[in-house]
Amino acid sequence: MPTTMSLTAAADAAGQTPGFRRGGGVVDAVSAAVVLLGLLVVLAMVSAWHITQGTSGIGVRDLIAAMTGTASPAEAGPSVRDILLGSRLPRVGAGILVGIALGVAGALFQSLARNPLASPDTLAVTGGSYFAVTVVTAFGIALPVWASGGVAFVGGLAAAALVLGLAGGAAASTTRLVLAGTATAMALQAGTSTLLILFAEETTSLYSWGSGTLNQLDGTAAVRAIPVIGLIFVAAVLLSRRLDLLSLGDDAASVLGVRIRSTRAIGILLAVVLTATAVTLAGPIGFVGLCSPVIARLLSRPVPVLAKHAVLIPVTAIIGAIIVIVADALLREVIGATEAITLPAGVTTTIFGAILLVVLARSMRTAGPAQATSAARSRVDGRRRAIIVIACGCLFVAAAAIIALLSGDRFYLLGDVALWLSDRAAPVIDFALDSRAPRVAAALAAGAALALSGTLVQASARNPLAEPGLLGITGGAGLGAVIVTTIVPGATVVLISTVGIVAALLAFGLVYALAWRGGMNTDRLVLVGIGMWYGFTALTTLFLIRADPWDTPALFTWLSGSTYGRVWADVAPVALVLVIAIPLAFVWTRELDLLALDDDTPRLVGVAREPVRLGVLVTAAVLAAVSVSAVGVVGFIGLVAPHAARALVGARHRRVVPVAMLLGAGGLIAADTIGRTVIAPAQIPAGLVVALIGAPYFVYLLARTRA
């Protein structure tokens, strides 16, 4: 094991030991001061611009006259002061506080998890807050006034506590913590979406709030949040030395005297409280917490001092505030303050942050060697075990398909199915099974396609959080479907699905083109994919909010993943693509094993890395895109099925591919069956059931495996 002295020297050489004590300390201190001062000037300028905007028609001159006392009482009466103090300052103040809180929380989460995909959603804080508010609203739970503002706060803390418990506490490995948090967040999001669909009248206003809003009745809430955010910000800065050393790895940090468990526990607690405070103040505005620290770290390449957490945390906080204020001000400038009131602040911050993230990700040449995915670190099991698992998987899919065919608002028997197959069944049985069979086939084909797509993406991107959505496919499909529904009144399912497929493939092409720069860097691909995914999702939310209210429930159901109304023609594209993709996947199994390791190994053994990676990603994109025609937008299968397969049969893709497809197919069939029977004749979209059931099982798998 390296000595403490050698590790300290290595940390200093990497620029990760805090403080400015070495030869370049003066230069570092000056650089840090210049960067912080410059960002503060930018924040002050955009805040001043924001304050001049509003619905009252009071402009810059009126505000200056009122503040300097040079205007006459008629010109600067109480109305100007009331507008300034009661509306504009609270809005800009809330934006700054939310940006600071989410920026610092995101920096803490990413540093503790050592993963650029980590964010305040990593511990499901945002999802827990939104779910708690939705539950209270949907069921009409009466709360005293003093407690109503804390619902989101308590929900966020409870969700974080649940994730920590499932992952094994604050000392759990970073990968386990991130994956458990992501699974829980998706389950909470599915629960929220289910309540929004089942209690549409009671929760009408929550969809907009769920995207975040800076509208403030007065400055009371912002003033209450200042001491909380201020104290935690100071505590985070004081934790910076530990975070610097923790970036070297748990073993090295422990040798250097860092208490890993307490550091992780304190950092997580600080980030959770910051996020819950931000959600309580302005609703869920999640992208800022992901985008701000990524931007700060990308800027640390030309300005290395930003890599030190003592500087990184304040810089991230200011960048978060700038993103929120600039996005809101630009929206009000483009469409007018009156129209902007109806649009969630989270939509504009997400679009603005996504653009910045893509631009900066494009500027990065390399991010160093990407970490191997869990596929590369899993054990390798014997052939006999794989055969048994595959056989059990086939039985599982067959049983799930038969039960799905028999189940629904009315349960039929196998004899009824035999009569239906021989064309001798009663009309009511013919009608029921004629409508159920395509749904079962659609779920089977789409589940297998999504699972295979997720397997290919995780191997190519070498990231345990990777799924087809990282290629822009999910977001592009959703956006295309919403746009065509908004433009074409009464659009059919066939038209929506067709446009969704085309939009998904165009989105993938855009993501890949933006991520390519003299070669494909997996870190750049992931960052560009995240930015485009969130950008597409924000635009989808924008169109949903402005769409005809009568179309919203159907669109929301399609975006949640559903087999309702599917016919055999919807299954044909998925089946055709699977016939082509499955042999390709088995041909590429050796290449997938190598891609999951690093960028150098494929080259050393003679594999054409870039052509193979492009072929793998194109295949994954087409698989995920055509699944849209069968089940709409379903995201969880592509994440959980590959992990479950690796937990069952090990790392080799020759075994992972068939097992993942069987799990995906059987899981989506089971989810669709539950969704259309548990509250029949009403139905829950299959995508929501997948998340609600799959997340606990996913966490169970994590608990059974080593970090």
What distance separates the N and C termini? Answer: 21 Å
Helix content: over 70%
Number of helices: 32
The CATH level-2 architecture of the largest domain is identified as: Orthogonal Bundle
Query: What would you report as the Rg, rounded to the nearest angstrom?
Result: 26 Å
Overall mean pLDDT score?
78
Shape: globular
Structural class by helix and strand composition: mainly alpha
Tell me what you see in this structure.
- The protein contains 32 helices and no strands.
- Helix content is 73%, strand content 0%.
- The protein is globular and about 90 Å long.
- The longest helix has 36 residues.
- By secondary structure, the protein is mostly helical.
- It has two domains: 295 residues, ABC transporter involved in vitamin B12 uptake, BtuC (Orthogonal Bundle); 238 residues, ABC transporter involved in vitamin B12 uptake, BtuC (Orthogonal Bundle).
